[in-house]
C-alpha cells in the first residue's frame, strides 16, 4: 500500500513548483496544501525562510527546493522515471522563453482566481512584490500583443524539437519537469497559437501528471 505524503506548496505562481508533477507521474498519493501568498510565517517555521514547495516526509522532516523534491519522489520506489538525457536544444529554448515569459504571465497571475490569492491582502502582496521588480502589471498586460507573437513563434521552433508526446526527448527527463510547467502556465495567455505537436505534448503531459491546464481562465 502506498503511503500518503504531504506537500505544502503554491500551485500557480510564476515559477510553478515542479514537484507536484512528479507525484502525478509516479501515481503517488499526496495531500496538497496551498499557502496564501502573503503567508511568510508557515514556511519560515518549517524551513527557515519564505519559499515553496515544501515536502513533509514520512519522518516529519521538511524538504524544500522543487528539484530536490522531484528527485526524492522519483527514487522512492527504486524505479525512477526521469532517466532520459537532457537536450541542449530544449535547455536553450527554455532559457530564451523564460527570459520574457513572465511579462505575459505575471499580470495574468495577478488577475486569476488562484487559491493563494483568496484574500485581498494576499493578492496585493503578490502585486506589490512583482511590480517592484517587473514594473506596472497593467502596462505589461496592455502590451501583450508583441509578446504573444514572440511566444507563438518560439512554440513553432519547439514543435520541431519534440520527439514524443509523452516525453519531449523520447524518454522522460528533467527537461519534461522544466518544460511542462511553463507550457501549462502559458495556457493562461489567450491568443497564443499552439502548434500541433506542442499542443499534443502539453495535453498528454497534463494527463500523465494529473494536473489541469489553465485554459479555462485564459486572459
UniProtKB/TrEMBL annotation:
CDD domains xref list: GST_C_GRX2
GO cellular component: cytosol
Gene3D superfamilies: 1.20.1050.10, Glutaredoxin
Domain Glutaredoxin 2 C-terminal: 89-218
Signal sequence region: none
Family annotation (InterPro entries): Glutaredoxin2_C (IPR007494), Glutathione-S-Trfase_C_sf (IPR036282), Glutathione_S-Trfase_N (IPR004045), Grx2 (IPR011901), Thioredoxin-like_sf (IPR036249)
One Pfam short name: Glutaredoxin2_C
GST N-terminal domain residues: 25-79
NCBIfam families cross-referenced by the UniProt entry: GRXB, PRK10387.1
Protein name: Glutaredoxin
Record organism: Escherichia coli
The encoding gene: grxB
Amino acid at each position: 500500500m502506498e503511503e500518503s505524503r504531504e506537500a505544502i506548496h503554491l500551485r500557480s505562481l510564476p515559477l510553478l513548483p515542479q514537484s507536484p508533477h512528479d507525484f502525478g507521474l509516479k501515481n503517488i498519493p499526496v495531500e496538497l496544501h496551498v499557502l496564501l501568498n502573503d503567508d511568510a510565517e508557515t514556511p519560515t517555521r518549517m524551513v527557515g525562510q519564505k519559499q515553496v514547495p515544501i515536502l513533509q516526509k514520512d519522518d516529519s522532516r521538511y524538504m524544500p527546493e522543487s528539484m530536490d523534491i522531484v528527485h526524492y519522489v522519483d527514487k522512492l520506489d527504486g524505479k525512477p522515471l526521469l532517466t532520459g538525457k537532457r537536450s541542449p536544444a530544449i535547455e536553450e529554448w527554455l532559457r530564451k522563453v523564460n527570459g520574457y515569459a513572465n511579462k505575459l504571465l505575471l499580470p495574468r497571475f495577478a488577475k486569476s482566481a488562484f487559491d493563494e490569492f483568496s484574500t485581498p491582502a494576499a493578492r496585493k502582496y503578490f502585486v506589490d512584490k512583482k511590480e517592484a521588480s517587473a514594473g506596472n502589471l497593467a502596462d505589461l498586460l496592455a502590451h501583450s500583443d508583441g509578446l504573444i507573437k514572440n511566444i507563438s513563434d518560439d512554440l513553432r521552433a519547439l514543435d520541431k524539437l519534440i520527439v514524443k508526446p509523452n516525453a519531449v526527448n523520447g524518454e522522460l527527463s528533467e527537461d519534461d519537469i522544466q518544460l511542462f510547467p511553463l507550457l501549462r502556465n502559458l495556457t493562461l495567455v489567450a491568443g497564443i497559437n499552439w502548434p500541433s505537436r506542442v499542443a499534443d505534448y502539453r495535453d498528454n503531459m497534463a494527463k500523465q501528471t494529473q494536473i489541469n491546464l489553465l485554459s479555462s481562465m485564459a486572459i
